[in-house]
UniProtKB/TrEMBL annotation:
Belongs to the class-III pyridoxal-phosphate-dependent aminotransferase family. This is Aminotransferase. InterPro entries: Aminotrans_3 (IPR005814), PyrdxlP-dep_Trfase (IPR015424), PyrdxlP-dep_Trfase_major (IPR015421), PyrdxlP-dep_Trfase_small (IPR015422). It comes from the Eukaryota. Gene3D superfamilies: Aspartate Aminotransferase, domain 1, Type I PLP-dependent aspartate aminotransferase-like (Major domain). It comes from Phialemonium thermophilum. Keywords: Pyridoxal phosphate.
Length: 492
């Protein structure tokens, strides 16, 4: 195939006469491509209201929320029962310093979270953001080894093309090239990477699950041996990789092999479930589907569903028992840690998920979402992979389906598709990502609707996405066929 080019001349329209779009959309003969992103224009659409699965803009446009932001809005928008729970706590008191007082809202949430693990976790710290809680996990892992006299353990092993947060510590753990790049001189040198886990791009022809897992396990063990097994504090991984790779689950047996290696050499296993946890993949905790319990677990986005900024660090029973038996206190704290209104909101959201049996719906509608994505986009020449679990799905775009060649990073394909889908006539909000092919290249969009979604809304999301994909790539191919080879003016 020839070069794909997008530049100023073709930003004016995108023809879609023979794209096979969903009938839910009447596509005009001449369709403008999306405007420049906020980094160029300095502005974003003004949201005025959210209700259920829909967002409403200042100009009256209604957008179907297909991603909940970054997989945050897990019960949809505008739930009055959550607002009432928050107001009830506010009427009592709005803030208390965790260093001076305990509060019932935080106690109740912590107790609920511990019970939700079947007793596998023994302690919970309530915080306010994913980056914050990953930072806390890193520090607790280190302090645990200080407590038991293994002070040489200062190294952390993570994976390429991963993302664990935006603070210096959490970003140090991350393998997301573009997000790390401006800050590399500031980042920790005790973080060491192994390759990403990406079956679509890494599995060899004819390679079985067991063979693939064995090859990955050997790489991890070699990293332990190179660093010195007694110098590694923890291995940090997402059970289902989120934004960095786009909803990539592990194959059976992978995390069991990772845990076996950690135990062999005395390191901790930390699961970052900030994005994939709290029901997003069909079980409350993503590790439940892996048969592996981590030593530390981070939670975030779906914990309070966006009604408050909430996160939590769950501590495994072995570490928590040691803390209790030796009277150890974690040397850590934030001003808004154990915030009572945050805790009240998070507990109410989790009660709704439980009382309305939404985890069953995640599995049911997740299966339907998978079916619809594969039916509408599975044969598209620029769709390389459709992957995910529960209501956590991604579509990866490729330049050449047969070779899996990604588009050049500078074309920002996923961003353009996302922008186009958000605009009329598609009106669907997606989450875009770049870097899933490694080295900053590779484009994907993520579909992560609320847990109470139904098949009708799933149909809206998939129809809008598939129509936007057809319109976008048909215009790209048209320009290629017209033989326009100019390289000037790549405009978003």
């Amino acid at each position: 195939m020839g070069d794909y080019l997008l530049h100023q001349d073709i930003e004016q329209e995108a023809h879609a006469d023979s794209c096979g779009m969903a009938s839910a959309h009447d596509v005009p003969a001449s369709l403008p491509l999306p405007p420049a992103p906020p980094s160029v224009t300095g502005g974003r659409p003004l949201l005025t209201r959210g209700e259920g699965h829909y967002l409403f803009l200042e100009d009256g446009q209604r957008i179907t929320d297909g991603c909940g932001g970054a997989a945050v809005a897990c019960i949809g928008h505008g739930r009055k029962d959550v607002a009432k729970a928050m107001a009830k706590q506010i009427d009592k008191f709005t803030y208390v310093s965790w260093a001076h007082f305990d509060n019932k809202a935080t106690r109740d949430l912590a107790d609920w979270l511990i019970k939700s693990t079947g007793g596998e976790m023994g302690k919970a710290y309530i915080m306010c953001s994913g980056s914050e809680v990953v930072e806390a996990a890193l520090k607790l892992a280190r302090e645990y080894f200080v407590w038991i006299g293994q002070t040489r353990r200062v190294h952390f092993i993570t994976r390429d093309d991963s993302y664990h947060g935006t603070t210096i510590g959490s970003l140090s753990l991350s393998g997301h090239v573009s997000r790390r790049a401006p800050f590399e001189p500031l980042l920790m040198r005790q973080r060491h990477r192994i390759s990403a886990f990406h079956p679509y791009r890494q599995r060899l022809a004819g390679e079985s699950d067991a063979e693939f897992v064995g090859r990955k396990a050997e790489e991890l063990e070699q990293q332990f041996l190179e660093l010195g097994p007694d110098s590694v504090a923890a291995v940090v991984m997402e059970p289902v990789v989120g934004a960095a790779l786009g909803c990539v689950p592990a194959v059976p047996g992978y995390f069991k092999s990772v845990q076996d290696i950690c135990r062999k050499y005395g390191a901790l296993l930390i699961f970052d479930e900030v994005m994939c946890g709290m029901g997003r993949t069909g079980t409350l905790h993503a590790w439940e589907q892996e048969g592996v319990v981590p030593d530390l677990q981070t939670l975030g986005k779906g914990l309070a569903g966006g009604y408050q900024p909430a996160s939590a660090l769950l501590v495994g029973k072995d570490i928590s028992r040691l803390m209790e038996s030796q009277g150890r206190t974690f040397t850590h704290g934030h001003t808004y840690q154990n915030h009572p209104v945050v805790a009240a909101a998070a507990l109410k959201v989790q009660q709704i998920v439980q009382d309305e049996d939404l985890l069953t719906n995640v599995r049911t509608q997740g299966a339907y979402l998978q079916l619809q994505l594969r039916e509408k986009l599975g044969s598209h020449p620029n769709v390389g992979d459709i992957r995910g679990r529960g209501l956590f799905w991604a579509v990866e775009f490729v330049r050449d389906r047969s070779t899996k060649e990604p588009f050049p990073a500078g074309m920002q394909i996923a961003l353009r598709v996302q922008k186009l889908a958000q605009n009329p006539p598609y009106n669907v909000l997606l989450y875009q990502g770049q870097g899933c092919a490694g080295g900053g290249s590779g484009d994907h969009v993520m579909i992560m609707p609320a847990y109470n979604v139904d098949s009708r809304v799933i149909d809206e999301i998939v129809a809008g996405l598939s129509a936007a994909v057809e319109a976008f790539f048909s215009r790209v191919c048209q320009v290629q066929d017209e033989g326009d080879q100019r390289q000037d003016g790549l405009v978003l």
